Prior knowledge:
- The chain is an all-alpha fold.
- It has a domain at 133-246.
- 88% of the residues lie in helices and 0% in strands.
- The protein has helices at 2-132, 134-141, 151-168, 173-181, 184-194, 203-211, 215-246.
- The radius of gyration is 69 Å and the shape is rod-shaped.
- The termini are far apart.
Amino acid sequence: MRVGEGLVIALVVAVVAVAFFVAGMNYGSYTATLESEKLLAGERERIRQLEGELASKQLELDSALNNVDRLEALLSETKRLLSESEGRVAGLQASLSSELENLRRSNTELSRRLSEIETRMRRVEGQVNVVSQAIPILNQLRGVNALGPDRNATLNYWLDIKGLVSSFEPALTPAVDRVINNVDGLVDYYNWIDSYPGENAAADQIVQWLQSLPPSYEQYVNAVNQFVDELLTSLASKLSALRDSLA
């Protein structure tokens, strides 16, 4: 009996041991399964993340490619516009250079014509000023026939004319000097007039009186006439030059 009980106990122990072993194996397998599923879930999540990142990178790449295409299109359009602009700029530069050259020529011609006009105006102004200086001389000469026997008055009269003539035409002053040097002829003339024998004088007395006209008076008259001729000739020449300048 004891041997049988021992066998039974041993058998029971063996069965229990086997049961625990099997239970341990099942528990280990369950634990391993849980761990595997957990790892698998983690890998799947990582795969989803990688797929999301890959999709995002693909979108970025597609966008970058689109931007590259746009940039290439813009670059091509920019090059075309630059080429057209360079052509237009070259044309504008050529046109501008031509216009500037025309303006330079026009400006040169305008400056030349303006200079000619200014020179002409200065010449005309000078001629007008000179001619206008003859007016006081002509006004003064109106009284030449009214000069009396007063030698000093006659001398001052011609000295005044000489001053006017020296401003108008200095070359005429010698002609005035000849008149001044012969003013005594006018005094002699009035003395001759005073020596008139009278209406009741004999004919031979009147003839003798006429023949006694002082030669100095003739010299005075000739000097006056020569001066007036030279003055009028000079004035006519200056007026002709003025008309030519105004033409």
